[in-house]
Design brief:
six-stranded parallel sheet
């Protein structure tokens, strides 16, 4: 099929490359000329494992443009623009509105399915449909036989494994009130649903995966599925962090507790890792939007509100642990291991490390930070935040009063702790992810503090 994807961010680029790889003709459209120029040169504005390799395999079916005129030939148009949170929790829909207007002005003859891939409030499908109809009428193109339907196809991609999640998803959800639109999406996703495409060597098909569940719903249900799924995962993380606080008080080990809970098939082990809490672009934004939507209907979502409050407190707990050990933070030097909100990405949106750094700086500490991937982005986006960026762990540790593991990059498990002990001013490690080898660190002469243990 001929596909246009509006928006060249994490979701748009990952979706474009994946759909091109399975055989579709894909154009990725973005109004940012610098970003499109970079993509056309074969480079990418984001870090995602295997992205360049998969794009290389699909390059004959993949193109990039800043022009909405490409919409005229599309059978399916995905909207994958950003919907960042506003101060009141509602998402900023200005990019979505601009995309809908651009699509309406350039629809070609025939039937087009316009798909909301962005995470949008419930009812946005109807709103986007109205905007496209208005723009189509003003352009006069409706006299050429152009017609369309709006569908919802929420993304469930995890940064760091976005391509794997695109090719081998847990499920594909399509929501529309038009059977014709659902059928076209079913044909588009057939290679993924039936797993008939050849598996790339660097992204092998999971053993036993033969069919991906295909779920069709109405528009409102599809839009709510995405919000509900992210809110549930956020609640699960905040719950185990709440239990971790109790575990510390009673002398328990949250790692063992989470394992004992997760072996219950009704609960499962995923998202039961106690730590510094969640970050990134999705959970904070989507839980805020869900609460804001509920308020429009005179409803409250106390479990979601509590999850957000617990997550906020987790970042303060890291500072409290440092205070408990060092007593005074003014004049101290703290090294943060990791900046990205999770490993295998350079995304700094709502990154716990940046929040912790700000809290430490406000208390008079000097903050250093290292990240194996996100340093270039951090230098661009956080140049004025007061953090000293270090190229390696050795310079991060030189004369520091403590190290804090914030992002669980595998490289940090390979650190020579005996060598670091010689250069640190104070032998303290706070492991915010319960990720490091506690025995090796204490054996090297450090005071090791985990979360909930």
């Amino acid at each position: 099929m001929r596909i246009v994807i509006v928006g060249a961010g994490y979701v748009g680029i990952s979706t474009a490359v994946s759909l091109a790889y399975i055989g579709h003709e894909v154009i990725c459209l973005d109004t940012d000329q610098d970003k499109i120029g970079l993509l056309r040169s074969g480079s990418f504005p984001i870090y995602e494992p295997w992205l360049e390799e998969l794009a290389s395999l699909a390059r004959n079916r993949l193109d990039y443009t800043t022009s909405y005129s490409s919409i005229a030939q599309a059978e399916v148009v995905f909207i994958a623009v950003g919907t960042p949170a506003l101060p009141d929790g509602n998402p900023n829909l200005s990019y979505l509105e601009a995309a809908a207007n651009g699509i309406g002005q350039h629809l070609g003859p025939g039937f087009t399915v316009v798909v909301n891939k962005s995470t949008v409030p419930i009812g946005s499908g109807n709103w986007v449909g109205m905007l496209i109809r208005d723009a189509l009428a003003k352009s006069g193109r409706n006299r050429s036989g152009a017609s369309f339907s709006v569908a919802s196809n929420p993304e469930f991609l995890r940064e760091g494994t976005a391509l794997h999640d695109s090719l081998y998803p847990d499920r594909v959800v399509a929501g529309s009130d038009d059977p014709q639109a659902l059928e076209r999406l079913r044909q588009l996703y057939r290679p993924i649903v039936e797993q008939t495409f050849p598996s790339p060597a660097f992204l092998p098909r999971p053993e036993g995966l033969e069919v991906v569940p295909w779920l069709t719903t109405n528009l409102a249900s599809s839009e709510l599925i995405k919000y509900a799924a992210n809110a549930f995962l956020a609640i699960k993380i905040s719950f185990i962090n709440d239990i971790a606080q109790l575990s510390e008080k009673v002398g328990g080990d949250i790692v063992q507790i989470a394992k004992g809970m997760g072996l219950d098939a009704r609960i499962g082990v995923r998202f039961l890792q106690a730590g510094v809490g969640w970050g990134g672009s999705c959970f904070a934004k989507d839980t805020a939007a869900l609460i804001a939507t509920a308020k429009e209907y005179n409803l409250s979502l106390p479990t979601v509100e509590a999850a957000r409050e617990v997550n906020r407190r987790q970042r303060e707990r890291v500072v409290e642990k440092l205070l408990g050990e060092l007593k005074i933070l003014k004049g101290r030097t703290i090294g943060l291991m990791g900046l990205a909100f999770k490993p295998n990405t350079d995304d700094l949106r709502d990154a716990p490390a940046l929040d912790i750094a700000q809290r430490l700086l406000e208390r008079g500490a000097r903050v250093r930070a290292h990240d194996p991937v996100a340093l270039p982005r951090a230098r661009r986006e956080c140049a004025a935040c007061g953090i000293v960026f270090c190229e390696d762990v050795a310079s991060l540790a030189e004369g520091a009063d403590g190290l804090v593991l914030v992002t669980e990059w595998p490289q940090y498990r390979e650190v020579d702790w005996t060598a670091l002990r010689k250069v640190l001013a104070s032998p303290l490690v706070v492991d915010c992810r319960n990720y490091l080898d506690a025995a090796a660190i204490t054996g090297a002469g450090f005071r090791y503090l985990g979360m909930g243990r």
